[in-house]
């Protein structure tokens, strides 16, 4: 009984650090074609909508060379409440708002799980 109570308290403390509101979308495998532009667009479905924590995974950026060019890569992690959904590689996490860093709003991160 004490372990269960402690676990709930720890989950509550973790959730308090989740300052982002996000929507996680998953590609359905289908596409639609716009009748006017003939542009094919992938179809997604929302698998999670709620709180999350976006944080830097590494304390430094990397600059690998790709196709003859150098790009800057910063690894981030996104934490979700325990048991909220089963993430899959390729899911897209769209940050709708963040109370601690408003500049995160609008960013979309691809999940690698």
Describe the structure.
Strands 5-2-1-6-7 form a five-stranded antiparallel beta sheet, with no helix packed on it. It has a two-stranded antiparallel sheet with strand order 3-4. The relative contact order is 0.24. It is globular. The protein is built from one helix and seven strands; from the N terminus they run αβββββββ. It has one helix at residues 2-16; strands at residues 20-33, 40-56, 65-66, 69-70, 76-79, 92-98, 108-110. The protein is mainly beta and 113 residues long. The two termini are 32 Å apart.
Q: Determine the fraction of residues in helical runs and give it as a percent range.
A: 10-25%
Structural class: mainly beta
Number of helices: 1
Largest sheet: 5 strands, antiparallel
Mean pLDDT: 90
- What gross morphology would you assign? globular
Low-confidence runs of at least 5 consecutive residues: none
- End-to-end CA span: 32 Å
Fraction in beta strands: 35-45%
Number of strands: 7
Order of helices and strands: HEEEEEEE
What is the radius of gyration computed over CA atoms, rounded to a whole number of angstroms?
18 Å
Strand order of the largest sheet: 5-2-1-6-7
Please render the helix and strand layout as text:
Blueprint: H1 2-16, E1 20-33, E2 40-56, E3 65-66, E4 69-70, E5 76-79, E6 92-98, E7 108-110
Antiparallel strand pairs: 1-2, 1-6, 2-5, 3-4, 6-7
